[in-house]
């Protein structure tokens, strides 16, 4: 008889299709261990896995966080550091992890199912059966190096966070909310003093207690093969059953079976100081206990109530505290899902002398709102808006379902009844029937009449000084106690740990797994159609173009349509700025902030900004005005709307009004300036951002938007502009009008419409409502898109004469650096494929720089820029105890590879190529992303539509000699004095060593305060302001909205690197 194949021992708990997006959610449970498996099936090229463990701890040791790092150091059957990541790298995948206060999630992001299936069992063994060696704890967690300094990957990470304002305030709030027997009280990342004494045994104990199948959920989002998935998981449980009991009937659910926090008996207000030399501006954090997060209807109502209170500039709290009374730059509100949820309010950019007053104003305003009838018309619109946004996010956000599923696993019912709430939006149907009294009762119960915890975050130069002195004294004392012999022993211990951790993976081990075929990667196809001036890019022969050709013609506006089966319309109006004078460029962030928040003229009548915002919220799903970096043009702007198809013409009408019929009101402009000024101190605390801003100003022309929008410009310019507005408002208003007229010309506009074009009413001629505006000359030719390299200044075109700049910052406990040299200028450069593979090779997780820098505790991460036509290459060091050491080691590592002294690893080369495949899948992860990428390739970059396919083909054939040549010609100069410049921001205690090291490398060095790099763009100030310019630091509304960073934004994700 033929042998019978064991059927996977998983039972299906439920399966349902969500009725607001094309997604099927299926829940399984292991019959042996109770492990949960939840799959959200959705179309697209990427499979995202989230292997989630509920991690509860009752101390600040950081054990949960250390495991996030240690599991990647090897497992029972795969005892090699880096094997998991090298395997992932070859299989169009990348791994990552994060630690939250209540869970740790290990992520696997893969292009196509085949790669995901190949890596999954290896990854899960690393999670459940890791090798937690003493040597791994030395390098990954904490050690004292041979010079007596603290280091280690986890330690360096927390060193950069522990004394930040957000960390100090959040931790104190949780200390006041929760008693010692509740896990939410503790810093799961680890406090530095606790990490210094944390033992490997304590970490192993925590792993044994929490890391078991019964406490793990396998969450998968994408086009999954269910049968294959369950077979893999069944085999995995078989493979671990001799090492860890699958069944654990005594196991208690963390946070659920644990003691719950008592209700707050009284309001507590405390002041928490944070280190900062600029003592002008602080922030506030207010916390209320809320309902059980499983109460779906009530929590949906809380979400809507927060939208009503703080959702936009017309929401009552934001409108009063920010727009009218100008007491803060913003007030944000959110809630954390817990058995007793926590509702947070955070006023930011608050005058340090008014912290207590603003906290009281917030609370009194909540009571005031609860004491009288609500604006029920606006409340109903908030309900509809939140419903629309959920539908939109469910279709277009990769993280929408994973976040909800993980939260349900943490705190929901194991029978699946709470997960089933995701099937529909019935809670909205219930809430729509709520009365004014229902809403005010909710508000009174959880907010206005409830005790709360308030933390007043106050900047303190004295604390900054004392922390520095205390740290210097602590380290100096230890060095004295250790002596030369003790330091030598520490170095030997560290060297032994490194040798043990870096054992090479035998060549044949990785070859057990073939590079997966790409046939399982299902890229999203978007059909391009063009009208008007866009036809000059070439005709299209597809169904979408036929629909557009059959539609009534309009004026020849440049429009590119992208046809995808979406339920929404995504519009981007790309606006060039090449005709805008440099003197207007610093106004762009204020112009953007004011764009949707200013009065307009409609039908001959003035419409106040509150009415504008309310109507926009009714007519749209969302709207933004950003820099155009997301569509590949860092010198342009992008106005974006997301609407339902029936609102297509309404959206175009709004565009016309906002572009040509706005009223520049001195009151509204002043409000924007005040908000921006209040945000500057916080923006200047960011060492990475400041290093980048100094680098940008060093290498780019003042005409560049990237230069003009910097905090270092706002710090002086906005203060002077505010004074000028008070003295001579007409001049300032004329500047805004001049800026508007320079932007909104026919030749500056390119339109991208992403939609199911068959559903669009009058897709082309509807735009005549915009293009028929008097003054638009539709005969003009479209202005070319500004190439990034064209904005380089003399130093940017030939870097190296400046050398290095070191900027000590009291807000930092770490260091950051940017090194810049000349780079590629064209996507047609024949060296591009080899350059992409070379950069991928160097940056690989467990690759040469990872091991040389992160593996030795020299930085949390390093990376290169990939701005192909920028004309420069950048090397960036992120969160380092000494950025100069990271630079020096990186230079030596690259030099050995480039010269051939160190041979290239074929598996890392394969991984680099597969990483490029994954990057292409990232660009097409959703329908809107795929459509946007077509616009970037064809319109912004002027490349052929199949450019991505061709580059994928070319990188597969890059030779080792070509990789080494790219390293020699393009990469190495970024480490060479005379060919590169280096900008370092660092803690003051690090200044001396970094100056010495960079000098020894051959760089000229200069130490400057941050204020040295302020730039007023020629706007003169009063004679009496010179003395206070450096202190009274101001900033624009830190417009994350306005533009992306000059780089690819990779650092934003570095916090999540395992």
TrEMBL record:
<dbReference type="InterPro" id="IPR011249">
    <property type="entry name" value="Metalloenz_LuxS/M16"/>
</dbReference>
<dbReference type="GO" id="GO:0008233">
    <property type="term" value="F:peptidase activity"/>
</dbReference>
<dbReference type="Pfam" id="PF00675">
    <property type="entry name" value="Peptidase_M16"/>
</dbReference>
<dbReference type="InterPro" id="IPR011765">
    <property type="entry name" value="Pept_M16_N"/>
</dbReference>
<feature type="domain" description="Peptidase M16 N-terminal">
    <location>
        <begin position="60"/>
        <end position="147"/>
    </location>
</feature>
<feature type="region of interest" description="Disordered">
    <location>
        <begin position="1015"/>
        <end position="1058"/>
    </location>
</feature>
<dbReference type="GO" id="GO:0006508">
    <property type="term" value="P:proteolysis"/>
</dbReference>
<dbReference type="Pfam" id="PF05193">
    <property type="entry name" value="Peptidase_M16_C"/>
</dbReference>
<dbReference type="InterPro" id="IPR007863">
    <property type="entry name" value="Peptidase_M16_C"/>
</dbReference>
<keyword id="KW-0378">Hydrolase</keyword>
<feature type="domain" description="Peptidase M16 C-terminal">
    <location>
        <begin position="198"/>
        <end position="383"/>
    </location>
</feature>
<keyword id="KW-0645">Protease</keyword>
<feature type="compositionally biased region" description="Acidic residues">
    <location>
        <begin position="1020"/>
        <end position="1058"/>
    </location>
</feature>
<dbReference type="GO" id="GO:0046872">
    <property type="term" value="F:metal ion binding"/>
</dbReference>
<protein>
    <submittedName>
        <fullName>Presequence protease 1, chloroplastic/mitochondrial</fullName>
    </submittedName>
</protein>
């Amino acid at each position: 008889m033929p042998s019978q194949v064991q059927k996977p021992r998983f039972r299906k708990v439920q399966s349902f299709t969500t009725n607001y997006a094309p997604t099927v959610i299926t829940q399984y449970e292991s019959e042996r261990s109770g492990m949960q498996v939840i799959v959200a099936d959705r179309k697209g090229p990427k499979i995202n896995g989230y292997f989630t463990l509920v991690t509860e701890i009752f101390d600040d040791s950081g054990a949960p966080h250390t495991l996030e790092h240690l599991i990647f150091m090897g497992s029972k059957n795969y005892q090699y550091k880096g094997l998991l990541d090298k395997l992932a790298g070859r299989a169009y995948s990348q791994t990552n992890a994060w630690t939250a206060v209540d869970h740790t999630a290990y992520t696997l992001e893969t292009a196509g199912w085949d790669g995901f299936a190949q890596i999954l069992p290896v990854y899960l063994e690393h999670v459940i059966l890791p090798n937690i060696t003493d040597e791994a704890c030395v390098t990954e967690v904490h050690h004292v190096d041979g010079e007596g300094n603290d280091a280690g990957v986890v330690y360096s990470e927390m060193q950069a966070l522990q004394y930040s304002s957000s960390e100090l305030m959040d931790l104190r709030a949780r200390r006041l909310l929760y008693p010692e027997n509740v896990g939410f009280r503790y810093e799961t990342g680890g406090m530095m003093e606790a990490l210094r004494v944390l033992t490997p045994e304590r970490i192993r104990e925590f792993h044994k207690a929490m890391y078991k199948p019964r406490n793990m959920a396998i969450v998968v989002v994408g086009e999954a093969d269910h049968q294959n998935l369950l077979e893999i998981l069944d085999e995995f449980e078989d493979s671990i059953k001799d090492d860890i009991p699958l069944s654990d009937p005594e196991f208690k659910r963390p946070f659920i079976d644990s003691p719950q926090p008592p209700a707050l008996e009284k309001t507590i207000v405390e002041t928490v100081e944070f280190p900062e030399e600029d003592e002008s501006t602080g922030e506030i954090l207010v916390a209320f206990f809320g309902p059980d997060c499983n109460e779906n209807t009530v929590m949906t109502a809380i979400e809507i109530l927060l939208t009503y209170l703080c959702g936009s500039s017309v929401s009552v709290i934001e409108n009063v505290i920010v727009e009218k009374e100008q007491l803060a730059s913003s007030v944000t509100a959110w809630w954390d899902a817990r058995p007793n949820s926590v509702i947070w309010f955070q006023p930011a950019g608050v005058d340090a002398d008014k912290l207590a007053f603003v906290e009281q104003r917030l609370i009194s305003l909540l009571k005031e709102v609860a004491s009288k009838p609500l604006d029920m018309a606006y409340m109903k619109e908030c309900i509809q808006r939140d419903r629309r946004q959920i539908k939109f996010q469910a279709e277009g956000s990769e993280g929408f379902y994973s976040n909800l599923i993980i939260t349900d696993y943490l705190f929901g019912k194991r029978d699946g009844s709470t997960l089933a709430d995701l099937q529909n939006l019935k809670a909205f149907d219930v809430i729509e029937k709520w009365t004014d009294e229902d809403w005010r009762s909710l508000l009174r119960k959880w907010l206005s009449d409830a005790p709360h915890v308030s933390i007043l975050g106050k900047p303190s130069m004295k604390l900054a000084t004392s922390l520095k002195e205390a740290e210097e004294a602590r380290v100096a004392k230890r060095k004295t106690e250790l002596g030369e012999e003790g330091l030598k022993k520490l170095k030997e211990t560290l060297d032994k740990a490194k040798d043990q951790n870096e054992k090479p993976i035998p060549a044949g081990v990785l070859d057990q797994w073939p590079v997966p075929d790409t046939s399982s990667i299902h890229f999203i196809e978007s059909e391009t159609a063009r009208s008007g001036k866009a036809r000059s890019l070439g005709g299209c022969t597809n169904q979408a173009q036929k629909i557009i050709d059959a539609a009534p013609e309009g004026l020849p506006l440049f429009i590119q349509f992208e046809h995808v089966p979406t339920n929404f319309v995504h519009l981007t109006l790309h606006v060039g700025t090449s005709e805008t004078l440099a003197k207007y460029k610093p106004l762009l962030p204020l112009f953007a902030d004011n764009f949707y928040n200013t009065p307009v003229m409609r039908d001959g009548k003035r419409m106040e900004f509150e009415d504008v915002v309310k109507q926009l919220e009714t007519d749209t799903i969302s709207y933004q005005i950003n820099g155009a970096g997301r569509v590949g043009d860092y010198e342009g702007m992008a106005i974006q709307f997301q609407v339902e198809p029936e609102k297509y013409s309404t959206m175009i009408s709004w565009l016309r009004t906002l572009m040509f019929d706005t009223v520049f009101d001195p009151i509204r402009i002043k409000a924007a300036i005040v908000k921006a000024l209040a945000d500057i101190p916080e923006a200047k605390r960011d060492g990475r951002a400041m290093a980048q801003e100094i680098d940008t100003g060093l290498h780019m022309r003042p005409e560049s938007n990237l230069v003009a929008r910097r905090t270092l410009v706002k710090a002086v310019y906005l203060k002077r502009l505010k004074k000028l507005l008070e003295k001579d408002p007409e001049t300032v208003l004329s500047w805004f009008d001049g800026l508007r007229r320079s932007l909104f010309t026919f030749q500056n506009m390119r339109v991208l419409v992403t939609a199911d074009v068959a559903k669009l009413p009058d897709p082309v001629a509807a735009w005549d409502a915009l293009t028929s505006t008097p003054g638009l000359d539709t005969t003009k030719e479209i202005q070319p898109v500004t190439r990034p390299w064209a904005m380089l200044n003399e130093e940017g075109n030939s870097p190296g004469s400046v050398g290095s700049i070191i900027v000590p910052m009291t807000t930092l406990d770490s260091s950051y650096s940017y090194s810049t040299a000349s780079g590629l200028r064209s996507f047609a450069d024949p060296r591009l494929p080899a350059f992409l593979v070379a950069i991928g090779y160097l940056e690989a997780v467990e690759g040469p720089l990872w091991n040389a820098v992160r593996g030795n505790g020299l930085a949390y991460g390093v990376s290169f820029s990939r701005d192909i036509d920028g004309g420069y290459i950048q090397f960036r060091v992120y969160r380092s105890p000494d950025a100069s050491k990271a630079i020096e080691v990186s230079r030596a590592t690259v030099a050995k590879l480039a010269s051939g002294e160190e041979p290239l690893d074929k598996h890392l080369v394969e991984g680099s190529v597969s990483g490029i495949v994954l990057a292409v899948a990232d660009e097409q992860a959703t329908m809107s992303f795929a459509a946007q990428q077509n616009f970037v390739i064809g319109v912004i970059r002027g490349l052929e539509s199949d450019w991505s396919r061709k580059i994928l083909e070319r990188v597969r054939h890059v030779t080792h000699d070509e990789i080494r040549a790219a390293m020699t010609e393009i990469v190495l100069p970024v480490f060479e004095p005379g060919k590169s410049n280096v900008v370092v921001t660092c803690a003051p205690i690090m200044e001396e060593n970094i100056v010495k090291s960079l000098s020894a490398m051959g760089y000229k060095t200069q130490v400057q305060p941050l204020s040295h790099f302020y730039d007023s763009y020629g706007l003169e100030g009063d004679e009496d302001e010179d003395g206070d310019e450096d202190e009274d630091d101001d900033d624009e509304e830190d417009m994350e909205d306005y533009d992306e960073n000059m780089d690819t934004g990779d650092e934003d994700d570095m916090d999540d690197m395992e």
